[in-house]
Design a protein that fits this description.
Order of helices and strands: HHEEHHHHHHHH
Strand order of the largest sheet: 1-2
Radius of gyration: 19 Å
Structural class: mainly alpha
Largest sheet: 2 strands, antiparallel
InterPro entries: ABC-2_transporter (IPR052902), ABC2_TM (IPR013525), ABC2_TM_bact-type (IPR047817), ABC_2_transport (IPR000412)
Family: Belongs to the ABC-2 integral membrane protein family.
Strand content: under 5%
Oligomer: single chain
Membrane topology: Multi-pass membrane protein
Keywords: Antibiotic resistance, Cell membrane, Membrane, Transmembrane, Transmembrane helix, Transport
GO molecular function, one term: ABC-type transporter activity
Number of domains: 1
């Protein structure tokens, strides 16, 4: 991903107007980067491609009467979160530190934390929009039912988004340059995809492997979303795993984050 153009730091005093100015500037920069648009359309496009495989659209008794494509909707929903949090967010934030933008902001009424929160909000919205597109695409194109337990699904999705963004913030905290952030993010990205069940559905993994995967944030999220999609409230253990990962990773990101 290319480094963004330097942010125009508002000269207004701190407060809602300054935060709004930063948000407007960041939205403009965000829209100009093609990789951000790709991160929105990639997961639903992946779902559409997977659905082209005939056997994925056939009912499978070994999957409790579900189709493989039914299981892939929660997976691509999580890919939406992971892509925005690990591939888009860290290089942007690290490049701001590398270019000295955060240091310059520290001398103005607009605090660097305003930029951090704005970037987290932008990437969070991007991820959730992409996740919604995955649900709609699955329903419209392949007749995949919407989640039956909407409240549980929303809770698991928000916790997964929190954990994903916190992990992205930790990558940005540890990386020295934007290139390092891209490398670290990619190194975490593919194991995270495995934990979502992209290659092997979590429910089809051997018990020992599934138990290990469900202690990761994305394995727990995949199982929680599966349960909510089927009409059950997500397991308490999965929600606890998500919450602990999100809280611990957030604390670590705050602890190690450097503005300069």
């Amino acid at each position: 991903m290319t480094a963004p153009a330097p942010t125009m730091v508002p000269t207004t005093t701190g407060g809602p107007s300054a935060r709004a100015a930063v948000l407007r500037a960041e939205i403009r920069l965000y829209r100009r980067d093609l990789s951000n648009i790709i991160s929105i359309v990639f997961p639903p496009a992946l779902l559409l491609v997977l659905g082209l495989v005939p056997m994925f659209r056939e009912v499978n008794e070994d999957l409790d009467g579900l189709r493989v494509i039914d299981l892939y909707v929660p997976v691509v929903v999580l890919i939406s979160l992971i892509t925005a949090a690990l591939q888009i967010f860290p290089p942007i934030l690290t490049s701001y530190r590398e270019l000295g933008i955060l240091r310059r902001m520290s001398t103005t009424p607009v605090r660097p934390s305003t930029l951090l929160s704005t970037q987290m909000w932008l990437n969070g919205v991007t991820a959730l929009v992409s996740a919604l597109l995955c649900l709609v695409a699955g329903r419209v194109v392949y007749d995949v039912a919407f989640p039956r337990e909407v409240g549980g699904y929303a809770l698991a999705l928000l916790l997964a988004a929190w954990a994903s963004l916190a992990m992205g913030a930790l990558v940005a905290a540890l990386a020295k340059t934007a290139k390092h952030a891209t490398g670290i993010g990619t190194a975490v990205y593919f194991p995270a995809l495995f934990c979502t069940g992209l290659w092997i559905p979590v429910r089809s993994m051997p018990d020992a492997l599934a138990n290990i995967v469900e202690f990761t944030p994305f394995g727990a999220a995949a199982s929680a979303l599966d349960q909510a999609a089927a009409g059950d409230w997500p397991g308490v253990s999965h929600l606890i795993v998500l919450t602990v990962w999100a809280a611990v990773t957030s604390a670590a990101a705050v602890r190690f984050f450097r503005w300069e």
